[in-house]
Amino acid sequence: MSTPLEANQVEAIQGYDAEKRYKYLVKEVVANREIWILTDEHGCVMLNTDYEDCVPVWPNKEFAESWATGEWEDCKAESISLNKWHSRWTHGLEDDELAVVIFPNQDEDGLVVYPDELDFELKQQARKQNQR
Q1: Which of 25, 85, 117, 129 has the most Cβ atoms closer than 10 angstroms to its Cβ?
Q2: Residue 39 domain boundaries
Q3: What's the rounded Cα separation, in Å, for the pair 122 and 118?
């Protein structure tokens, strides 16, 4: 379970470029053992790029909630345990031919990665943390 972030922390992290937000997400998700999505009455919110249908993910509740504006204001931030992500979501997204958009913010799109790439990065980070 993550500790709520202060407003100044949220603002500083929102200013990171897409690559730095990806690194931040991987560390936070492993440290807190949860990843955040947005849901509505139809299920998980999706984004579309020119080439991929994607599920956006965030490292903390505050960032997911900050995305829930405008047409998405009725969406709710929902956490998924890291274990459930590894055991169900990675394979489910692959089976549905969906990509993952990492930590988009209002100013910039996030990096688009394949579910197995994100899974690999999360497992690598977990190994690093366990070696400490």
Answers
A1: 25
A2: 33-127
A3: 6
